[in-house]
């Protein structure tokens, strides 16, 4: 199957119509659906917008929406036909030949399929006379027509070549509709396909549709099966995104359009369209790079040393030191210029084929970052995640791999039982939470876990793990449910690296003895742990003494401890998964957040 | 009836437990419900928190929540009793003697009222032995017990003096429960009353409860009837707020606690408790004050002159000029120091008793602002609305009224038909939208209209009119559904004054001829108007020529025009309500917003 044409409804993106068209074109879309209100607010005439679209390489695939047309009394029909002719005027200027007519929600309408079909046929005749066509769509909340099967019965009854169906995945799947019957509809009657995903929510379907739609792959609908049926029926139009989402509506349209394009490419891949080479298998983290100012870097180095890491190398040309322990590697880059700064600048994964990983990333709308490097240095490819973190694809064992950029200075010591990186936790910018998950999924081949929401001291937080098939790479995405305002914790957008440790309690005892900067956890937490889990008193006292936290799920137990913050947002964690514990200790996150705030408030003398 | 004790659950407010207690005390609460997770994250021991509360004048009225206790197999009962004893330890230290037990949602539990009653009696015996009591609450989503009637049957069956009911308005009213039967419950069995309002939403009740509760008077529940029944039954405990709200959870707790207190006072007033003198009748706007830098003030003055206003006076001691036209008065204050600045600094309403208005404002947690004034100046009282706008209470006709602070410099000219101020439109800070409505309601005696949501070019916006009984004072509150991020329109937080005009079209023709800074509305808007309304062609062309906008509702028609922006956020509007049009032309707001952005982008040369 060849690549289909790709469209996006202007309503998916924020800004003026001009902003939206520019963003859609820049992201590589072939066409747009023009949402009427976007045009109405524009100072450019429809003809000028048409020219603009053609200049940008965009076709105008649909004009929408035309509401409340059919099954009305004669006087109202006359008004509606007049209204339609005015819109045909606009479409003519735009260079659009397809209009979307939504099933009526009007109190004027009657429940009469024959009347609806007759009036739609009249509309189709008018359209045909002007070289246009009408795509009739069943809204999930249509007054009488709210399933695609019903809209198809009416279109079939109207039997006019200029009248066909528009299928919108949301309207069908939100009502648990069965997309299998789509295959029975003749392809030439399928005029348009609108794609939208959504999280599974138990709420009024109109509100769900207007506020919470997502791009494909960001929600829980099976769009591949749906779109597969449509293509199998013989649909030849574009794959078009129509997503109403409160966050996207106010986010920068340029990255949002890229996100949209990525979602479409991933869907196409699921449909068997060869848009990208498959994601290579991953095998854990190669390294994580922390970027800090020199003073904070010194504290980070002391912290890593306390956790049992050894400084094992220095970069041949950059102010970067390599720290290691049992397969966990951390780079400390001291190029940050603002004091009190540390952040995760990059993470690197072991890929079975780094070049293919890079090619896939480019095909998935994540271009390889330009990178300065010395003449002898390894050709590492990296892409930027939506939060700006660099993602490298590595083959550490290769002779000319990234390690050759470092001069070895020492061999790792015995350490404290750290064997690797369990996960990297990244707080995502508010506008990019769903995009981040899609990035991990499409570019890295990670699969999303369930979203967990919890009440933290400074607002609701959500957490979503992304994990590869062998659980060798986990990324924990975090974000707030409401964009942070002025009132906020001392710690904004925290990030951390969690190291796998064979014995967190033994490590914790050692850290306690050595005076390491372990985050102090309050007694109240342990009193509650006692109430909830009834742990053995000796274990409970050890946890309390060493500030080790505890969680349990159906698969097993979780022991973990946090360091204090280095700079304003970065900390480290040691974790131990006993048996098959699958989570991230999220239940303990509010306690950790309050403790980090105490650390910062104490440090700032407040 | 005397003033009851007032409590607030710590979960209503953002921050650490210490932040929350401080905010609750500062707002005047008598007690708190301590939410367990707030305590667990605190480094202060329960005993220390108990001392802190007493030092702040707060009693600990409830410890909550204790979940999934009742109707379980014997082994689980032993665990649960052990867990309860640990929590009694905590309560003892806190100085709390009442624990909230929520009806079970556990898969371990069975549907057996007798077993539930027996086990709750056992728990009550344990509590009694420690001088404590248990308040049993039916969660709306309880597995077996989800109505207060059912929880009361179980409590009655358990028949223990240390076991009573906790009633939560949300859990009853979200399920359309009938609060009338509360009157049949003996007062001594009503241990606790939790108050929460909510907007009417059609969604999963647990999600509704956890994210969307509001303070009393901010939603659509009839809390007065509910609480009245509880008091009538003989309840003597505190009126306590328990509100889970995503926005309040991340907003500054100090104003949020004041908002909470105000909501409680208004509810008490509805219950017939004499907390404040009634709101005096209002009779329109006395004036609106615009604060601008001198250059922007000059442009504003030119704009007002173009709209037919006359500069009629100057303040005796301050850089403030008075402009008038047919009962509409605008003050221009030139004390702003930042260029390109104009904002609505204050609005003033005519009160039938300004001193009583001020006393009511103070009783409703809105203290009178301190104010510098000269020895001869009128004693105007003003309070601050949640967005910082000053609100003055005036009696303009009084001999020593505010007009006496001005030296008259001219008498108003003929003007363009402006007769007064129709409404003032204020964009509210994201965290304070619901608070603003409650302020208008409780302090000014305005009633809320329906919230209208609409898609604007840069995100979803909501609009809520607040209006007095005679429609003499209207305030339009605006806000975004999602807090604005970096990507945003040129116009942030727009504000405007809408003047009533007897003939907007005639005024518009005049303005066009005079070259006034009227906001230019695009042709596309008029083409759509034509399609939608089929206006007479001459009318349509006049509207188009003069950039007059049009709307229609069940009551009548609306003609309005906007000026360009003065500074970065303020503009003016002329409005004409034909017959009984009740809205604010919100349907046209997106067109206006896009046009203002064009004005700003053009001005900045982008």
Automatic annotation (TrEMBL), chains A, B:
Chain positions recorded as Mg(2+) binding sites = 423, 496, 573
Start and end residues of each VOC domain: 420-564
According to its UniProt record, which reaction does this protein catalyse?
Answer: 3-dehydroshikimate = 3,4-dihydroxybenzoate + H2O
Task: Say which family it is in.
Answer: Belongs to the bacterial two-domain DSD family.
Which prosthetic group or cofactor does it need?
Answer: a divalent metal cation
Role, per record = Catalyzes the conversion of 3-dehydroshikimate to protocatechuate (3,4-dihydroxybenzoate), a common intermediate of quinate and shikimate degradation pathways.
Instruction: Indicate whether Oxidoreductase appears among the record's keywords.
Output: no
Q: Which residues bind a divalent metal cation?
A: 137, 168, 194, 242
Q: What is the protein name for this chain?
A: 3-dehydroshikimate dehydratase
Pathway of action = Aromatic compound metabolism; 3,4-dihydroxybenzoate biosynthesis
Please state the Enzyme Commission number of this protein: 4.2.1.118
């Amino acid at each position: 199957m060849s690549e289909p044409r790709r469209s996006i409804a202007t309503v998916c993106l924020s800004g003026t119509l001009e902003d939206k068209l520019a963003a859609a074109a820049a992201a590589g879309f072939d066409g747009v659906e023009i949402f009427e209100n976007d045009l109405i607010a524009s100072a450019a005439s429809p003809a000028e917008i048409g020219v603009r679209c053609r200049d940008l390489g965009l076709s105008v695939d649909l004009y929408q929406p035309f509401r409340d047309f059919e099954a009305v009394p004669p006087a109202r029909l006359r008004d509606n036909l007049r209204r339609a002719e005015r819109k045909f005027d606009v479409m003519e200027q735009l260079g659009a030949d397809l209009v979307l007519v939504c099933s009526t929600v009007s109190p004027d309408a009657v429940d009469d399929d024959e009347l609806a079909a007759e009036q739609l046929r009249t509309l189709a005749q008018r359209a045909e006379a002007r070289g246009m066509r009408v795509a009739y769509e069943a809204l999930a909340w249509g007054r009488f027509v709210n399933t695609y099967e019903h809209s198809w019965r009416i279109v079939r009854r109207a039997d006019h070549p200029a009248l066909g169906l528009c299928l919108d995945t949301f309207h069908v799947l939100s009502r648990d509709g069965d997309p299998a019957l789509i295959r029975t509809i003749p392809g030439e009657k399928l005029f348009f396909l609108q794609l939208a995903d959504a999280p599974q929510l138990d709420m009024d379907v109109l509100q769900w549709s207007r506020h919470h739609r997502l791009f494909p792959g960001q929600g829980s609908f099976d769009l591949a099966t749906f779109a597969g049926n449509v293509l199998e029926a013989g649909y030849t139009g574009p794959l078009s995104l129509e997503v109403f989402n409160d966050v996207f509506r106010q986010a920068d349209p340029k990255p949002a359009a890229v996100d949209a394009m990525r979602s479409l490419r991933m869907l196409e891949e699921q449909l068997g369209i060869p848009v990208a080479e498959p994601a290579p298998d991953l095998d854990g983290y190669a390294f994580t790079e922390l970027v800090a100012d020199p003073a904070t870097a010194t504290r980070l180095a002391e912290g890593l040393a306390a956790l049992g890491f050894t400084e094992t190398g220095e970069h041949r040309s950059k102010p970067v030191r390599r720290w290691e322990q049992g397969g966990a590697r951390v780079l400390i880059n001291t190029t940050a210029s603002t004091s009190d700064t540390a952040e995760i600048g990059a993470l690197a994964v072991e890929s079975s084929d780094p070049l293919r990983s890079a090619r896939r990333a480019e095909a998935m709308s994540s271009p390889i970052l330009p990178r300065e490097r010395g003449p002898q240095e390894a050709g590492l490819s990296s892409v930027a995640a939506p939060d700006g973190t660099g993602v490298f694809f590595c083959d550490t064992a290769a002779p000319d791999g990234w390690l050759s950029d470092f001069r070895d200075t020492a061999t790792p010591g015995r350490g404290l039982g750290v064997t690797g990186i369990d996960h990297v936790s990244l707080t995502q910018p508010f506008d990019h939470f769903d995009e981040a998950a899609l990035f991990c999924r499409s570019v890295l081949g990670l699969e999303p876990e369930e979203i967990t929401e919890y009440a933290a001291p400074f607002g609701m937080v959500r957490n979503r793990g992304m994990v590869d098939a062998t659980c060798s790479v986990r990324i924990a995405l975090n974000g707030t449910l409401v964009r942070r305002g002025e009132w906020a914790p001392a710690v904004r957008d925290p990030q951390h690296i969690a190291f796998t440790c064979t014995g967190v309690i033994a490590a914790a005892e050692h850290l306690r003895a050595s005076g390491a900067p372990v985050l102090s956890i309050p007694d109240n937490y342990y009193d509650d742990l006692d109430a909830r889990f009834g742990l053995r008193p000796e274990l409970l006292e050890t946890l309390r003494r060493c500030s080790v936290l505890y969680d349990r799920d159906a698969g097993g137990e979780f022991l973990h401890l946090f360091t204090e913050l280095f700079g304003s947002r970065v900390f480290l964690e040691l974790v131990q998964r006993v048996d098959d514990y699958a989570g991230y200790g999220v239940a303990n996150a509010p306690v950790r957040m309050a403790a980090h705030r105490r650390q910062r408030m104490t440090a700032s003398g407040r």
